[in-house]
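Researcher: We're teaching a course module on how sequence relates to structure. For the next exercise, students receive a sequence and then see the predicted structure as tokens, so they can try to spot secondary structure elements on their own. Here is the exercise chain.
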Amino acid sequence: MSADTSHYVYERPASGEYEVEYGERERHTSMLTTWSPAQIIGLIIGIGITVLGFAAIAETGFDTDHIYTPHAETWSLWHSPLFALIEVGFGVLVILAAVVPGGARGFMALLGAAAVSFGLVVLVEDVPNRLNHWLGVEDRNGVFYLLVGGVLLLTAIVSPVFTRKTRRHVVRDEQRVVA
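Model: And here is the predicted structure for the students to work with:
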């Protein structure tokens, strides 16, 4: 029932002089509002990486014929146009995980694990390698994504979820009407 709807039942006894009217009115509805500190941290990281990706696209330009070149340094991190586009997509996914009420912590943990894995691969590979050619990444990028992914992963696992409840209150009326 919606908040302002009423539902009444009329009952006539087989022998009697009155009619009984029962009614229900719903005053408050049940609501759950959830939030988590992981949402705030996820929004900050998501917005930061998205802005970094757009700044890198502005720095490198984006030509579909040459998505691997040029390599440019943006905010002390090296990028190719392809990597800048990947960063924008990653940042948007982190933002989407963060805006879900209570935070989509499983998805945020998956994104954090992917960033940690990418950071480790960049750090382990010797330069020059294909990642360096395709994405323009160096050790600083690996350290950056290792830290960002670690923060996302740790936040998604450890952060509590707070829930506030509003209870449903039903008022029942009984009224005798003489027929």
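Model: If you want an answer key for the exercise: The beta strands are 6-11, 18-28, 31-35, 72-74, 77-79, 162-166, 169-178. The chain has a mean pLDDT of 79.
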